[in-house]
Each structure stands twice: as structure tokens, then as C-alpha cells.
Amino acid sequence: MDNLMAASLPSLQRFARLNSNSDKTEVSEVVAAVIEDLRVTVKNTIDPASARRSIADLLDFLNSLKSTVHPGRVELAQSISQKIIPELYQKDEPAEYDNYEYLRAEYLLVNHICSKIADNLSLIRGEVSAHPGFRKGRREFAVHPLCIYATIYASGIRDLMTKLVTVRLRNKKIQTTIYEPLTRDVIGVGKNPDSFFEDNVIYIDEQVTKLLDWGISVEQAIAAKKSGTPDAPDEFTPKEFIPKEFTGEELLIQELRDKLKLHSEINEYFLPQSAGFELIRQLYTLNKGRFLHSVKEIQNATKYGNDHSQVVLQIDQIVNDTAELEFDLIALSAHAVGGEQSMLTYKALQDICIGSARTRDAMLEARPLIAAELGRQPIHMAKQIIFEAQKKIGNIQKIEEMFENFREMISRLNQKRFEPEIKTCASMMLASKSLHPLVKWLENEGAEEGTFFLRMQQVQIVLKKKWNIV
């Protein structure tokens, strides 16, 4: 197959005809058929890059659909991410020997860039003594960590930056100003490269920032092209899966983003859609002094503030002095690291997020990382519950703990601003008959605290019977 045209698959055409009245068994069967067809198609492809583009477009389109109209879209998107995308990246041609003249100098530059990002991530995670929450405590999360909380995330960024530097910085200007001096004055005489990067920090930071700014601009161009795709259910036809023409630069950035997403799937951390080149740029250029001061201010306000509203008011003053993603990193660090009385509370984090804008769309733009972290937690817990409930022999105590975590996540979430995430949880659980009482709790009972335990007991009865637990 020269081009992966997802629309040509009969199973996808069957998927397009599913609706809210479709039987859940039929939905699962159709999704399984789509995955099998995609697997065969991927196996036979001679152009993995083209296949990745088509799969990425298919995923984007699935994510744009409403679960109430296309009940299998969540299940299909998850299956593609878990079963198809890894196979696509295993099909890359083996790398040829790289005989670039300045390979060692290039490696030192990549190492400098990635070490700086890794150090800043360590600071955000509170692993550096300068952090006000250092060794005072750490919040426990019941789901896989957000990317900035995961140590392995830095490894994914290194893979991305290695490819980006190789493709974009092998030019005469970088060769003359960075690679040749590094080779001559550092590598050639066995000198420690740290002093070279310290002496040239302003120029090197300028070049790296320009590189990341270029990545941001290409991401924006990709988003602009994709935004033209219709998302009305009655337009869910084969032509919607045909990707628009992308430039070589756009294909490169899309591939780098896809590989980073795959890295997060394999290493079990959460990489939001908003965690692209703009976040990497923020991690590279992080103002450590302002970051540490702001985290300390937030944690002091949390610990010594007279009431919740005063805490939020003091935090608002910090918001005015920082950019969107910079503040997200500050708040998320203050939320995850520190003493029990000083860590920014979940309620304060959510109030800051909601208070950033009057509408959901504006909120997602103003507080991209915080909104993603708040909204995804119940979805990821729902995934764990579904996985446990589908086992032939399960652990009733383990799933009861999951139920309690899920209840807490839903109860503290603003149901108006995060309505799509709550609906997604219900849609996912529809595929498991034993979890239908929880679907009823979410959809028909407004996730009321008073009825949760009744619905949980109903689920427990079904699961105990299924697992032969007396």
C-alpha cells in the first residue's frame, strides 16, 4: 500500500453508520474489525510516513466527534493509539550510518539543550533543594502522572530534540558559530564543554529559541489546516479521512509529535495535546528565580491565608506577571510538591483554571496544562475501572478503591466546565454492561453524592457474581 487511505476500509464505513441506538456488542465488534483492517493495511504498507499521517488524521477526526452520536469513537481511538501506532513506528527503515563532519559537536549541543530542560523539569518536580517544597512531601496521584511530573518525559524530549537539531541546524551558520569552535577549542583539546556553553549562553539560547519558535509556528499551521475539517455527524464520510496537503516541515513536526505521544503511551505518563513545542520552549527558557519565588508565594498563601478566596486573590497577582504556560508550571508544581498544609489545593487549582476565562474554550487556551490535568483524571480512572471490570477474575477490593477515587474525582470537578470529560467517562463505561449503574449515575442522576453508593453496590453485586466471590 503506497498510501493509507483509511476511508477505503469497509469496516470504517460500517463504523460511520453507528449511532446512539447501536447495540454495544455491535459497536465492539465493529471497532475490532476496524483495528484488524488497519493492522493488515499497516503490515502491507511501504510508506510508514504516509500511513502515520492518515492515522493521525483519523484520530483527530474521531476526537472531534460527539460520543453520544458515535458511541465507539473513544474505544476506537484508544485501540488505535495502543495497537496501531506502535506498529507504524516499528516500520521505520533502519538508520544509515551518519558521517556528518560535526557529529560530536552536534551531540554536545543536543546534550546541552536537553540537560537544561531536564534540570528545569527536576526543579518543577521539587527534586532540587531550592524548591520551597523540597523533601516536605509529594501529592499521590491515583492515575498515571502528567508529563511534567514524570521523570521519563525528559527522555522523550531528548529523542525529539535530537531529530530536530539534526534536520534543522546542519547549516553553515551553526557550523561556523557553534560546531567548528566546539570541535576546535573543546573536543580537539579534550576540554570540558560546559565552559564553552557558559561563555556563549546568550547566542546559543537565541538559536535554540528560534528553533523552538519555528516548531511552534509549524504546529500552528498544522492546526489551522486541520481546523477546516467538518465535524458534523452527517458529514462523516470517506472524504473526511483524506488528509490535506502538508508541507515537508509540517510532516516533520507531526512525526515528532506522534513519536513523543507514543513515548508517553509506552512509558505510562499523560501527554496533553497542549504539551507541544510551546511547552518545550517554556521548559528551556524557564526563569528559575521567578518560578521559585512564585511557588513560594503560592504555598505561603495556601498555608497562612485566612480563607480560600484570599488565597485565590493572592495567586491572581502572580498570574498577571507570568505567561499562560509559565503560570501553569508554577501552579502545578505548587500543587504537587510541598508540605500537606502548603500544597496548592485541588479546589484552588480548579478555581484558578475556571476563573481564567468566561467560556470553556477560552479557559482551555488560557490554562492549557491545568485544564488538561483536571479533566483527564476521571477519564483515566474510568479506563482503569473498565480494565479491571473486564477481567475474568478480578480483585473486588482493588476496584472498590478505584470506585472511591472515581467518585472523588467526579465530585470535585466542575460539572459545567468539564461536562465533555464527564460524558466521555459515561460513554466509555457503556461498553461494559456491569458498569451501567455508574453510567446512570453520571448521565441521569447528575453524579449526585447520595446515589453513588447505591450504584456502586449494584456494580459490586454484578462483579462478585461474575468473579464467583461469596
Explained architecture:
With 470 residues, this protein is mainly α. Among the domains are: 1-91, no CATH class; 365-467, no CATH class. Helices cover 66% and strands 0% of the residues. The protein has 21 helices and no strands. The protein has helices at residues 10-16, 24-44, 48-64, 73-90, 103-124, 153-168, 172-187, 194-199, 201-226, 248-267, 277-284, 288-304, 308-319, 324-336, 346-354, 360-366, 368-389, 396-412, 419-429, 436-443, 449-466. Helix 5 (103-124) packs across helix 7 (172-187), helix 12 (288-304) packs antiparallel against helix 13 (308-319) and helix 19 (419-429) packs antiparallel against helix 20 (436-443). The longest helix is centred in the middle third of the chain and has 26 residues, at 201-226. The radius of gyration is 24 Å and the shape is globular. The N and C termini lie far apart (54 Å).
What are the salient characteristics of this protein?
470 residues, disordered N terminus, globular, mainly alpha
SSE layout:
Elements: H1 10-16, H2 24-44, H3 48-64, H4 73-90, H5 103-124, H6 153-168, H7 172-187, H8 194-199, H9 201-226, H10 248-267, H11 277-284, H12 288-304, H13 308-319, H14 324-336, H15 346-354, H16 360-366, H17 368-389, H18 396-412, H19 419-429, H20 436-443, H21 449-466
Radius of gyration: 24 Å
Structural class: mainly alpha
Low-confidence stretches: 1-7, 230-238
How much β-strand is present in the residues?
under 5%
- Order of helical and strand elements: HHHHHHHHHHHHHHHHHHHHH
Short description:
By secondary structure, the chain is an all-alpha fold.
